[in-house]
Amino acid sequence: MSDPAMRGILIAKFRRLRREVELDLERQMKDELEAGLRDRREQRNAHMERKRSKEERERQSTRAEGRESVTEVRGEGERVQEEDTRDKERAALDRAMRAARLRAEEHRHRTLNLPASPVSISPSPPGRAAETPVAVRGRDMESVETPSPTIPASATPVTI
Fold it and tell me: Are 101 and 26 within 8 A, CB to CB?
């Protein structure tokens, strides 16, 4: 285990396996969510069909009585309502997927006891200044002070 090459191989295998588990969890959660949304859509469609058939029966009964129904004209409003419903379903799916990803990540951290990010990135390479040049905006641009990249951060800034 002290061999760096062997350690690197084991780390790569572990990361690959961890990613496969994450993807599998995401796929499973997405399938469950889509199945739930499909069931809700089917229930809503069945409800709308019952509502339409009820309205149709009412229309036919009003025609039989010789009266005209006010709900005869339909079309654009119904189409807009269906589009709104689809938008709401998409938003619900997006929210659910975000929540599923968070749950999967929390599960991963609990079960695998992993750090928050697999790779830590240092803000600056070793031996270089951690400070970034600062530009001062103002009328007197000749007195802008910036640390030189070749001079260590402990040195005083040069006035240009």
Answer: yes
Residue 97, number of CB atoms within 10 A of its CB? 15
Query: CA angle 73-78-84, nearest 5°?
Result: 160
Asked if 30 contacts 100 with a C-beta cutoff of 8 angstroms, the reply is yes
**Backbone phi and psi for residue 37, each to the nearest 5 degrees, phi listed first:** -65, -40
Task: Provide the β-strand partners of residue 82.
Answer: none
Mean pLDDT of the chain: 74
Residue 117 in domain: no
Residue type at position 60: Q
- Per DSSP, the residues of 69-80 read PGGG--SHHHHH
Q: What are phi and psi of 146, to 5 degrees?
A: -135, 135
* pLDDT tens column, 60-78: 887 776 654 444 445 556 6
The pTM assigned to this predicted structure is 0.31
Give the Cα separation of 110 and 17 in Å (integer).
Answer: 16
From CA 108, how far away is CA 104, in angstroms rounded? 6
The whole domain housing 52 covers 4-112
The answer to whether residues 93 and 156 belong to one domain is no
37 within 8 A of 85, measured Cβ to Cβ: no
